[in-house]
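Q: What residues go here?
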């Protein structure tokens, strides 16, 4: 899945003198406050962190007295969905008008009917609603299905994603990676000594790594942006 990256960050965490006897715990508390929130500095949602090194010499900075700054290096796992990226999530609600999805267990996404390609037809039988492909009857989307969809926009304040099933390489992950084939893979045939043919699946993976090399004061972003 796209949208995930690891950032090598040089940080300065500001600690109150009352926490000076247990600096490590105070630092972890500050870093934990970043989790599952959009951070403008890193341009993404911090999902996890790992402290690599800690400067044992802290210094009081002018203008922020009596706080003192502790320098550290950390790896941050970031979730930064951008338009046209491909994400995967589990369908939790399905109606004729929309498909509702949970991504990574915390971020909600919705795909409205105008963003569902005509290939899919809505059906409801015996209380079970689903979208079924007109071209491939085994390609179906229902509650519990893990789907791959394209990002249209992200509401950074409430971490809500607007998605699309218009691209041909979107839909049920099990079908795309199984019976239907994955558009992001290619098959390579190779002759074996006994005359049999072996098929190898070569995955094409993509992902950017974001680095933050400047010292930054950690702050909570309240900015809301929609990327269309």
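A:
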């Amino acid at each position: 899945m796209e949208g995930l990256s690891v950032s090598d960050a040089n940080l300065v965490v500001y600690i109150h003198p009352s926490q000076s006897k247990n600096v490590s715990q105070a630092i972890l508390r500050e870093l934990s406050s970043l989790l599952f929130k959009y951070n403008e500095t890193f341009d993404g949602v911090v999902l996890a962190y790992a402290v690599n090194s800690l400067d044992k010499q802290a210094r009081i900075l002018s203008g922020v007295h009596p706080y003192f700054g502790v320098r550290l290096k950390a790896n941050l796992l970031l979730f930064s969905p951008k338009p046209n990226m491909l994400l995967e999530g589990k369908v939790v609600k399905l109606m004729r008008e929309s498909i509702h999805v949970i991504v990574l267990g915390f971020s909600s996404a919705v795909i409205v009917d105008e963003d569902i390609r005509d290939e899919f037809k809505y059906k409801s039988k015996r209380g079970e609603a689903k979208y079924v492909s007109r071209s491939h009857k085994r390609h179906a989307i229902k509650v519990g299905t893990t789907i791959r969809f394209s990002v249209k926009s992200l509401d950074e304040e409430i971490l809500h994603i607007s998605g699309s099933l218009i691209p041909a390489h979107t839909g049920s992950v099990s079908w795309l990676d199984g019976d239907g084939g994955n558009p992001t893979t290619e098959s390579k045939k190779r002759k074996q000594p006994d005359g049999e043919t072996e098929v190898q699946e070569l995955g094409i993976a993509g992902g950017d790594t974001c680095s933050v090399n400047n010292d930054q004061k950690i702050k909570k972003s309240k900015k809301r942006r929609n990327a269309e």
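A: Context that may help when evaluating the design: The helical segments are 23-32, 173-177. The radius of gyration is 23 Å.
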